[in-house]
Structures are given as C-alpha cells and as structure tokens.
Amino acid sequence: MPFDLQPVLRGDLVGVRPLRSADFDELYQVDRDPLIWDQHPARDRYRYEVFTRFFAGSLASSALAVTSAAGDIIGSSRFHGYDQRRSEVEIGWTFLARSYWGGQANGQLKALMLGHAFRFVERVVFLVGPDNRRSQRALEEVGAVRVGSRPDAAGHDSILFEMRRPAGSTTSG
Question: In angstroms, how far is CA 51 from the centroid of its own chain?
Fold first, then answer.
C-alpha cells in the first residue's frame, strides 16, 4: 500500500484533511498573525504576497489543512520527502493559530500524523530553524529527540529531530 500524503484523520480536538484551493482565505486568516512567524526563518510569511506563494507551494506539495473539532481551519501541516528505501518521512511546515498554542492541539495533531506515518515508515523526522525555540520545545514535548542537523528542503540549516516507530508496530507500505 503506498504512503497516503493527504489522509483524513480526526481526533477529538483537531483533524487533518487535504488542503484545497478554496481554503485560501480561511487559512490566510490564521497565517496573517505576525507572531506565528517571529521565530521562523520566513518571518514575513504573514504578508499577503508571501503567503500567496507559500499557499501555491502547499497545494503543489499535497499539504494538509488542520481543522478544529468544529471543522474550522486552524493551521496547516504536511508530510514531505517520503523515502520508502530509508523508511522515513518528514512532518513539517506546521503552524497553528495562536489560540491553539500551549494546549493539547499540537500534541494531538502530531499523534494523528505519527500514527498514520508509522503505518508506513520506521522513522519520522522534523526539521526546525535554529532560532525557532518555540517549535523545538513543542517537538520535545511530543517526544521527538534532537539528533543533529541537516539542510531543509530550501537548503537552510535546520535542527533535525526524529521519532522512531514504537517497538512491536509493523509497517504496511
């Protein structure tokens, strides 16, 4: 079974579904908060023209809309760089509305995405900008381990975090 980059996953707090072009306005309402991007390498992503390019790239890369329990868009994420031979996939480009920071939403989002990924791979990686302390802490809170560094998809230096499939689980892909 091939890795599904755009699954529909639901938890009691958040869910994910394929991002659609019709989601532009609702996602931009989340994205346009400059504080979301203050530690991110793309600090100007809240600007309309920058978000427009980001959104087009998101659609082209099979990104996911992150939704609240009520179905409202509260952010975005994606699977990237699936490598069947290395049994690895990246989870990244994740951002959530600030009203969902500090609670259980990010943990549940990662649990849903990890549960899906570990059906297919042994290892999930996360790449985070060196100055993005908030995302580094959030990954540590969900159990990711810092294992080094490597360039991200744009060639920027990034801190590499990983999570390994729990013992006793098996892949199907």
Answer: 16
Rounded Cα distance, 160 and 71, in Å = 32
Amino acid at 130: P
| Measured distance CA(76)–CA(127) in Å, rounded | 16
What angle, rounded to 10 degrees, do the helices at 105-117 and 133-141 form?
A: 70
Residues in the chain, how many? 173
Q: What is the pTM of this model?
A: 0.92
Greatest pairwise CA separation for the chain in angstroms: 47
* Cα Rg, the chain, nearest whole Å: 15
Six token digits for residue 21: 């072009």
pLDDT in tens, 129-170: 999 998 999 999 999 999 999 998 888 899 999 999 988 766
Residue with tokens 């699936």: 82
* Structure token pair of residue 172: 């199907």
**What is the bridge-based pairing of β-strands 14-18 and 9-10?**
antiparallel
Domains of the chain in sequence order: 9-164 (3.40.630.30)
H or E segment and range at residue 123: strand 123-128
